[in-house]
User: Which sequence fits this backbone?
C-alpha cells in the first residue's frame, strides 16, 4: 500500500513494465515530448476509478507561472485493468515551459458529475535542462 499524504488524494507515477511498482518520481528534459504515466490514489492508498472523469493538470513554470494542461492532453487508461491510471502528454513547448528542478509538484483536478477532487503529486517530478552541462 502506498501511504497518503495527510489524508489527501494523491498522485504518483504509475507502475510500468520496467518498474512494476510505483516509482517515487518521473522526469523529463525541457523541450522533449514526454508522456507521463500517473496513478490517482485515495487517502487510503487505493486507486481512484477515473472512468468518465475530466482531468486538468498544473505544473509550475518559470518565475512563478503555472502551466495548465487540459483534458485533451490526458488519456484515461482502461479502468477495469488499470484503475486510477492515466497519461499526461506534453508537447515540446509544454515541457519547455516547465520550471527546471527536482521535486516539482503536479496538481491534477478530477471532475465527474458534481464531484471535484484535487490530486496532489507532491515532489514527484524532475525537470531537466536541455542545455549541455559545463
Assistant:
Amino acid at each position: 500500500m502506498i501511504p497518503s499524504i495527510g489524508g489527501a488524494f494523491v498522485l504518483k507515477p504509475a507502475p510500468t513494465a520496467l518498474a512494476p511498482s510505483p516509482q517515487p518520481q518521473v522526469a523529463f528534459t525541457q523541450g522533449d515530448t514526454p508522456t507521463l504515466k500517473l496513478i490517482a490514489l485515495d487517502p487510503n492508498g487505493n486507486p481512484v476509478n477515473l472512468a468518465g472523469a475530466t482531468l486538468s493538470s498544473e505544473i509550475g513554470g518559470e518565475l512563478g507561472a503555472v502551466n495548465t494542461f487540459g483534458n485533451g492532453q490526458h488519456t484515461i487508461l482502461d479502468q477495469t485493468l488499470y484503475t486510477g491510471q492515466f497519461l499526461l502528454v506534453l508537447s515540446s513547448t509544454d515541457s519547455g515551459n516547465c520550471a527546471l528542478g527536482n521535486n516539482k509538484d503536479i496538481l491534477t483536478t478530477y471532475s465527474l458529475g458534481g464531484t471535484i477532487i484535487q490530486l496532489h503529486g507532491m515532489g514527484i517530478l524532475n525537470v531537466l535542462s536541455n542545455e549541455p552541462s559545463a
